[in-house]
Design goal:
Layout (H helix, E strand, L loop, with lengths): L2 H17 L2 H10 L4 H7 L2 H19 L2 H10 L3 H13 L2 H16 L5 H10 L1 H9 L1 H12 L10 H18 L8 H10 L3 H27 L16 H16 L4 H17 L9 H18 L3 H9 L3 H12 L4 H9 L6 H13 L11 H8 L10 H20 L1
Helix pairs in contact: 1-4, 2-3, 4-5, 4-16, 6-10, 6-14, 6-15, 6-16, 7-8, 7-14, 8-10, 8-13, 9-10, 9-11, 10-11, 10-21, 11-13, 11-22, 12-19, 13-22, 14-15, 16-21, 18-20, 19-20, 20-22
Length: 412
């Protein structure tokens, strides 16, 4: 351990404390209106890791030199933050939402329950499972926007909102495990360990599907008497060709998820198309997407300094301990970073590999930083909570029960 590694670990710990203290900054903004702008900025969970990443880079420049700081920042991989930003903006565009709403409305009408109850269940179960095809960030964006007017609004008890967002985060984290490319923690090891989609579906997928359906059913039953037809968004039908173009661009971005130059090119094409036909568009969530990308980029920078203590810890655990260790560590580190470190360990048994990934995806809903799509969900849903912010303690408690369900099924 050297001075830079220690500094990185300390700043990472401070960032974690800051993440759990965002509601405090919103309270300070009310008490001290003169500095309300600064406190509101520090109270935005998406700002936290980006802010402390800047502090880390500045500290590296002072402790070592500017060249060392720049070299470290440029050595990090930012494909995931860029992809989440792009896929959030495209998936949240009006033509894509219109197409998804049409599909979910059709499925809801085929069920024997009230339409609004069926839509809630589909948003918490089917959409997260669809993340195995369209990637977890896209699933999170679509599910959050579908559920926001129904569940995350005034009139719904706060504890039920935290229960719903906990289920959503957990279900998205495990719902992407039916394939080998959609969940970031799986993607990090799939090529190294030779895990294809058939392997994922037969080992992780069926367990994840049962957990997703169970979790969604329980929270929907608790929410059902609060769900009313007036809170279901009416479809505004757009020309079919517009929706098709948007869906094709979204599919292209998903297929090129590991090639930032190409998917950024498609994104620029998307922006040009939306400008060409503005009457068919709603406001693009550029600001929200950029904030989420900033958060994830900060996590990449800060997280890269934690390998010196995380990797020895992971490699020292037996399979069962590794599962619970990964489950706990995921709450304070991005689960993709955790599995990536595991992929570097020589001689891991097949059982240990399974336990590491199962723990990482199982704990992916416990905090905002546990899984890459979580900041996207938090950015889109926070206005539905008191003070316009999501309490990290409430999120942890809301995700605890569905996490236990997922953990039990992965341990079978």
């Amino acid at each position: 351990m050297n001075t830079l590694q220690l500094t990185g670990a300390i700043l990472f710990a401070i960032a974690l404390v800051h993440t759990f203290s965002t509601k405090l900054f919103h309270s300070l903004a009310k008490r001290h209106p003169r500095h309300a702008g600064l406190f509101h900025l520090l109270g935005e969970v998406e700002v936290v890791f980006g802010f402390w990443a800047f502090v880390l880079v500045l500290g590296m420049a002072l402790l070592a030199d500017g060249a060392t700081a720049i070299s470290y920042v440029e050595s990090r991989q930012y494909t995931e933050p860029l992809f989440v930003f792009v896929v959030m903006v495209i998936a949240a565009s009006q033509p894509v939402l219109d197409a998804v709403r049409d599909l979910l409305a059709l499925l809801a009408r085929l069920t024997p329950v009230r339409t609004e109850v069926a839509l809630c269940w589909l948003g918490l179960a089917l959409v997260p499972l669809a993340g195995s095809l369209i990637t977890e960030p896209a699933a999170m964006t679509l599910a959050a926007l579908m559920l926001a007017p129904q569940v995350f609004r005034s009139g719904i008890p706060e504890w039920l909102k935290y229960g719903a967002i906990g289920v959503l985060f957990v279900n998205v984290s495990i719902g992407g495990t039916l394939t080998s490319y959609a969940a970031p923690p799986v993607l990090m090891v799939a090529s190294t360990w030779g895990w294809d989609s058939a392997f994922m579906a037969s080992t992780f997928g069926w367990r994840a599907a049962i957990a997703v359906i169970f979790n969604a059913t329980v929270i929907t039953l608790l929410l059902r008497r609060h769900l009313t037809p007036g809170n279901v968004v009416e479809d505004v039908h757009l020309p079919w060709i517009v929706s098709i173009v948007h869906l094709l661009l979204l599919a292209g971005v998903v297929l090129l998820a590991h090639h930032p130059v190409l998917f950024m090119g498609l994104f620029l094409l998307f922006l040009g198309y939306t400008q060409a036909y503005p009457k068919h568009q709603s406001r693009l969530i550029i600001k929200e997407g950029l904030l989420v990308g900033f958060f994830l980029a900060g996590l990449v920078v800060l997280g890269g300094m934690q390998q010196w203590w995380l990797q020895p810890l992971v490699s020292s655990l037996e399979p069962t301990a590794l599962f619970f260790g990964a489950l706990a560590l995921t709450a304070i580190t991005d689960n993709a970073a955790l599995t990536y470190l595991g992929s570097l360990i020589e001689g891991l048994s097949d059982h240990a590999k399974y336990m590491l990934v199962a723990g990482a995806v199982g704990g992916g809903g416990l905090t905002v930083i546990a899984n890459a799509p979580n900041p996207a969900g938090a950015a889109l849903l926070r206005e539905g909570f008191e003070d316009g912010s999501i309490g990290m303690g409430g999120l942890f408690l809301g995700a605890l029960a569905p996490t236990c369900v997922a953990a039990a099924l992965f341990l079978i």
